[in-house]
Amino acid sequence: MSSTEALREHEAQERKANRARAKAGRSVIFKIIRCDGPGKPSRWESFKVPVEPGSNVISCLKWIAANPVTIDGKQTTPPVWDSGCLEEVCGACTMVINGKVRQSCSCLIDEYAPLEGDTITLEPMSKFPVVRDLWVDRARLFNALKRVKAWVPIDSTYAQGAGPKESPEHQQTRYRLSECMSCGCCLEACPQYNIEEDESKWDESFIGAHAISQARLFNEHETGKRLKGERLEELSDKGGVGDCGNAQNCVKVCPKHIPLTESIGAMGRATTIHAIASFFTGKK
Amino acid sequence: MGNDSGFMNRHYFLLRRLHSLSGILPIGVFLINHLLTNSTIAWGLVNSRASENVAPGTIEQVGEMTARRVGTFQHEVTFINEMPFLVLIEVTLWVSIAFHAILGVYFARTGKSNTARYAYQDNWRYSLQRLTGYIAIFYIFYHVATLRWGWTFMSPTDEPWSHSQAASTFSLALRGQAQGIGFGGILVSLFYFVGVTASVYHLANGLWTAAITWGLTISESAQRRWGYVCAGLGAGLMLMAWSSLIGFLLLDVNHARAVEADMHAAHGTHVETTLPVAEADH
Amino acid sequence: MSDNRVIVVGGGLAGLAASVRIAESGVPVDLFSMVPVKRSHSVCAQGGINACNEIARQQGYSEYEHFDETIYGGDFLADQHPVLEMANWAPKIIDLLDRMGVPFNRTHEGFRDLRLFGGSLFKRTHFAGATTGQQLLYALDEQTRRYETEGKVTKYEFWEFLWPITHEGRCVGIVAQDMRTMQIRAFRASAVVMATGGCGLVFGKSTNSVICTGGAASRCYQAGAAYGNPEMVQVHPTAIPGADKLRLMSESARGEGGRVWVPRKKGDTRNPVDIPEEERWYFLEERYPAYGNIVPRDIATREIFDVCVNEGMGVDGQNQVYLDLTHRDPDYLTVKLGGILDIYEKFVGVDPRFTPMKIFPAVHYSMGGLWTDYTPGDYNPDAPKPGHKSGSPIPVDAQKGHGLTIGATNNMMTSIPGLYAFGEVNFAYHGANRLGANALLSCIFDGLCNGVSVVNYIKDVKEEAPQGVFDEAVRSEQAKHDKLVASTSGGTGDKAYNPYQIAKELGDEMTAASTVVKTGPRLEQAIAKIGELMQRFGKVELGDAASWTNQSLSFTRATGDMLKIADAILRAGLLREESRGAHFRKDFPERDDSRFFKTSVARYNPETGKSDIEFVPVKAPLVEPRARTYGKSDTKKETKETAAAAS
Ligand SMILES: Cc1cc2nc3c(=O)[nH]c(=O)nc-3n(C[C@H](O)[C@H](O)[C@H](O)COP(=O)(O)OP(=O)(O)OC[C@H]3O[C@@H](n4cnc5c(N)ncnc54)[C@H](O)[C@@H]3O)c2cc1C
Ligand code: HEM
Ligand code: SF4
Ligand code: SF4
Ligand code: FES
């Protein structure tokens, strides 16, 4: 078992143990960072929330939104957060829960606050500018996908026959990489990825594990390969794969279990070969 | 940021890879070699031929083991000092270390350690890689300044290091006195311990990350296996580093001096007569 | 050409397919979405996407057969031409997605793998792991991003569509609001494509994403666009009840021997594993000795509903029953159902290998939507063919004939010229019931095929609407917005005017009255209830007056719009005195082709604020309606066909 798998297993056991001792009919305290908008100061607010069986962080946030009164009886505004699918496939609801980044829709209260009065802290992701409360603007994350040209350059959307044949093993490799839901967990946990509000600096700041992995995904596709050189150029430049410091947090927090550190190694190799090849051929 | 960052951006890939490479070659290779040399002060005791050049009287006075240890170590140092193009090798090394250190600091400053929240082992190693890099800068600077440049004001002894009396002068620089150890000596010894430990860690972990950087290890299992190799290498180097320190700490400076004198006599080199070191002012 | 832009509202599969197609033809596209398009609801679809393929073809399957299945599955309520065209395009769409890099599952030899899905005897469903919708959406998202970097698509993410702008009867743009800055702005366009998905949230909790309010469709409807078959809403039999959402539980759990039961004693609070066999009521096995737990999904849905809602026998007094797999070997279950059992454990925190799952039917898909037009193609026989039989030769002309005239400017255009509806918001393809894995197809088909119609339409649009039209539209929306914001301070604190409370009552009422089993009196009661809610909504009090990123405001506004759609759903349901597809009237349990072989078309009446319903004959020139039995005599076939039919 790899260290990442061992860690996951350990965390799963911990959650299971909490579930087993969760008390029915309890209330838990939600400590939430509130911020009214960019540049505004932030503050903590606490709420006491009754827990239903199967409650998760989003359902509790909904409860707070409908009853926006803090624990010391102060009327406040409903908290703002981002969410979509509520099934852990869209990536919208990512936030920092009890100090660690994860999706809030799949975060069961029983697993995090099993006893009466236990506290759950919610913070917005710290690597992206806050829009309001728990909602952050992840535009830079999507910009990174443009940098590595994360697409297959097809001729047109008109019928031109089937795509390339592919072995089931190869399909599995691509499928795993293709499950990335752009949630940003890997970026939040990465010590090399830091908040950058200045859009003009995005193209030079660290691109992040998700995009490195996407570059690999599209380099693996028969037609996607056409842009391989351009992707590797981007990854060789400042902010590319070289800026990864191999802390390997990314792979541990990725909810989709994407083999990010393997992608980083693979792109390390590809950029090495690319550099040598272009040195001798003079071609980029 | 002007031209500097422009230059940097244009040659980013090359600089990154040169940084990685320089850590291994020449710096890493030198470090390994250096630790091998130094550890002879401990492991020289198994070198039975090392005492051949030491006068029997001296052996009687200092003991066979000390004779072998100092003998081997001095032999190695002399060998290095007689290498051709020594200056060239030295300059390459200094330039590499300076290059690696300056870029290293620059790169280290791009990250923000977060082990408090993500207390994973790999993450600790990432942070330690940076921390040990910083330590190595101070350590290497001190090491070179006191021993190579003779800045004895930072040293617990006034006596500059001499390659002809390598063991005794270094032992002095470490402890400040011929026998036992004083307060300054303790500080310096501790600093050496930390510095050399940090450097070894930095090299071993650096070799592990370098394999990912260059794309030699891709799969998780390959990374894990290479990790074992690096850990093994690191443990070996650590053993060498610590044993050298212990070796120097457990050396009687006057005994070493006697051995060194005999060595040089046999070798036919002239050595300035150095007096035995006065008993330290306790 | 400078202002000849197209606005696409919605970045799900339909919106993205349309954007790519339109941008590719050189027309600049402004793409609006409430969420980053990659997070659109389409990402949730798991099962797959249907298309005729070479293997099935050699076994007697064909595009025509796919067409026929879709019509039959939809209980003959869909107009038939567009469905034929969609089926004809399906294989080409799969090829295209394949070229875009969708990692479809592969066979040993490297061909695309296929799975069997509800409503067909042939393997015709293509899939990419257990997240087909996600993979398709990502492929289109990537192509859109490519056009975005080329400047051909401009994205407005976190922008909410508020109103279509019309001038001289044509749609000339939209009003939208930035959900962060709350800025309200008008955008000009020569044509507008609505691709805003379904309206599951009208029913409170559903399998849909949190943004699937149908608000956008409702606004078009209130602006004068007709709404087709609103009463046709699909309910999936097995979903996981949750505090916030009902998550889909694949029907394969029943297929693998899952037993459905409730405690015989009302309000039995014992741990289910402690309840002895004789005190459990296996109501499906009891009521349907032949089929047992694998009764067709509509029956399962109705029975579970009946036991909980009518008899009040639900587990813990709630609307839920046990779906029990604990009698099976846990290792076997892990091998066979690992993925879906993990989902249950992840969200419920209970391991279904050892504790029975709690499930309940959930609103899943809206067949109804904005009414759209089309121009038939050259396959237009004089008289409909009698029912097509699986594997029998297809009509000669159908092989090469077109269902639609490709590029005709009115294809999938709503009753407002220049305003199109694509994807789930379009009522066109699924009639009274949608076949599993056909929705993704219809979304992409709309975008690709009918995107061409949009491009053709704007070629003829020259004149410019005066600026005043846009200013007025913004003013009007701003006024509505300001009124809502102003309600915050003037609040009485009475819960009756709390938007969350109104939305909750709406959801509860709609779920109780208009999902699985409907009756005339209950629908009438619900119409009255909605009327009351509308009145209360008139005095709604907002919880947040912020002029920055005010989510309560957006939700409240959508609640008002959901009430309007709900009214249409109920009224059409009341008037349709028959049972067809997903619409089951207990008081009219049979399909009645003589009276209701018709599309219900709802029009908003601005005077009354209510819906006027009209019934328009279905255009069914290709195949004749036949009884929809799914070969009830054959148990084996039955289960095969119905399993997973609605996922
Ligand atoms: C759990 C589940 C599983 C399913 N599985 C399958 C399956 O296996 N096979 C299958 O064929 N179908 C399946 N379906 C159905 C299918 O997923 C949907 O019908 C389809 O994805 C709808 O796509 P769409 O493009 O029409 O809309 P959506 O994907 O819902 O996108 C709507 C878009 O409109 C935007 N929008 C909405 N309102 C506004 C507004 N006011 N202003 C601006 N933008 C707005 C949203 O931001 C979003 O981008 C499933 C559905 C569910 C719920
Ligand atoms: C004792 C001498 C040193 C040795 C043997 C050494 C060796 C190495 C090696 C082998 C690497 C791995 C390169 C890679 O991951 O590709 C490395 C990385 C690094 N070194 Fe050093 N180094 C030394 C001194 C320093 C100094 C003085 C600093 C200054 C802070 C420093 C900072 C770094 C940093 C920050 C990295 C990580 C680069 C990255 O992964 O981005 N090193 N070093
Ligand atoms: S391995 Fe690289 S990308 Fe991943 S967390 Fe570490 S530094 Fe960041
Ligand atoms: S790689 Fe994983 S953690 Fe990173 S964005 Fe994608 S899904 Fe999220
Ligand atoms: S809401 Fe989609 S991942 Fe949580």
- Overall geometry of chain B: elongated
Count of strand segments of chain B = 0
Described by strand count, sense and barrel closure, the largest sheet of chain C is: 6 strands, antiparallel
What is the CA-atom radius of gyration of chain B, in angstroms? 21 Å
Largest sheet of chain B: none
CATH class of the largest domain in chain C: Alpha Beta
Biggest interface found:
A-C, 69 and 68 residues
CATH superfamily of the largest domain in chain C: FAD/NAD(P)-binding domain
Please write the string of helix (H) and strand (E) elements of chain B: HHHHHHHHHH
Under CATH, the topology of the largest domain in chain C is which?
FAD/NAD(P)-binding domain
* Oligomeric grouping of the chains: heterotrimer
- The span between the termini of chain C is 44 Å
Could you tell me which ligands this complex binds, including any ions or cofactors?
A: flavin-adenine dinucleotide, protoporphyrin IX containing FE, iron/sulfur cluster, FE2/S2 (inorganic) cluster
Number of domains of chain C: 2
* Annotation, overall tally of beta strands of chain C: 21
Q: If you average the pLDDT of chain B, what whole number results?
A: 92
The amount of beta strand of chain B, in percent, is: under 5%
Spatial strand order of the main sheet of chain C: 13-12-17-16-14-15
Total count of domains of chain B: 1
Q: What's a quick, concise take on this entry?
A:
With 284 residues, chain A is an alpha+beta fold. Chain A has 10 helices and 7 strands. Chain A has 2 domains: 7-135, Roll (Ubiquitin-like (UB roll)); 138-151 and 166-281, Alpha-helical ferredoxin (Fumarate Reductase Iron-sulfur Protein, Chain B, domain 2).
Main traits of this protein?
heterotrimer; A: 284 residues; alpha+beta; Ubiquitin-like (UB roll); Fumarate Reductase Iron-sulfur Protein, Chain B, domain 2; five-stranded mixed sheet; two-stranded antiparallel sheet; 13% strand; elongated; C: 647 residues; FAD/NAD(P)-binding domain; Flavocytochrome C3, Chain A, domain 1; 2 domains; six-stranded antiparallel sheet; five-stranded parallel sheet; 18 helices; 21 strands; binds flavin-adenine dinucleotide; binds protoporphyrin IX containing FE; binds iron/sulfur cluster; binds FE2/S2 (inorganic) cluster
Describe this entry's structure for a reader:
The complex is a heterotrimer of chains A (284), B (282) and C (647). Helix content of chain A is 36%, strand content 13%. Chain A has a five-stranded mixed sheet with strand order 2-1-5-3-4, covered by helices on one side. In chain A, a hairpin with a 2-residue loop joins strand 6 (130-132) and strand 7. Chain A folds into two domains: 7-135, Beta-grasp domain (Ubiquitin-like (UB roll)); 138-151 and 166-281, Fumarate Reductase Iron-sulfur Protein, Chain B, domain 2 (Orthogonal Bundle). Chain A has helices at residues 3-20, 57-66, 109-112, 139-147, 168-178, 185-188, 209-219, 228-236, 249-253, 260-281, and strands spanning 27-35, 42-50, 94-97, 100-103, 119-123, 130-132, 135-136. Chain A contains ten helices and seven strands. Chain B is an all-alpha fold and 282 residues long. Chain B has one domain (24-81, 123-281). Chain B is built from ten helices and no strands. Chain B has helices at 2-10, 12-43, 56-62, 64-81, 86-108, 121-147, 166-175, 183-213, 220-249, 253-267. The relative contact order of chain B is 0.14. The model of chain B has no long low-confidence stretch (mean pLDDT 92). Chain C is an alpha+beta fold. Chain C folds into two domains: 1-100 and 116-122 and 133-232 and 367-647, FAD/NAD(P)-binding domain (3-Layer(bba) Sandwich), CATH 3.50.50.60; 241-361, Succinate dehydrogenase/fumarate reductase flavoprotein, catalytic domain (Flavocytochrome C3, Chain A, domain 1), CATH 3.90.700.10. Helix content of chain C is 36%, strand content 16%. Chain C is built from 18 helices and 21 strands. Chain C has helices spanning 13-24, 54-58, 63-73, 80-99, 132-149, 215-222, 252-255, 283-287, 297-310, 330-348, 396-400, 439-459, 467-486, 499-513, 520-537, 551-575, 593-596, 635-642; strands at 6-9, 29-33, 49-50, 114-115, 125-126, 153-157, 159-167, 170-178, 184-188, 191-194, 227-228, 233-240, 247-248, 259-263, 280-281, 321-324, 357-366, 369-370, 419-421, 598-605, 610-617. In chain C, strand 20 and strand 21 (610-617) form a beta hairpin. In chain C, helix 1 (13-24) packs parallel to helix 5, helix 1 (13-24) runs parallel beside helix 12 and helix 3 packs across helix 4. The radius of gyration of chain C is 24 Å and the shape is globular. The two termini of chain C are 44 Å apart. Mean pLDDT of chain C is 92; it is low at 633-647. Chains A and C meet through helix 2, helix 4 and helix 5 of A and helix 1, helix 4, helix 5 and helix 10 of C. Bound molecules: flavin-adenine dinucleotide, protoporphyrin IX containing FE, iron/sulfur cluster (SF4) (2 copies) and FE2/S2 (inorganic) cluster. One iron/sulfur cluster (SF4) binds at residues 180-186, 209-210, 213, 254-256, 258, 260 of chain A.
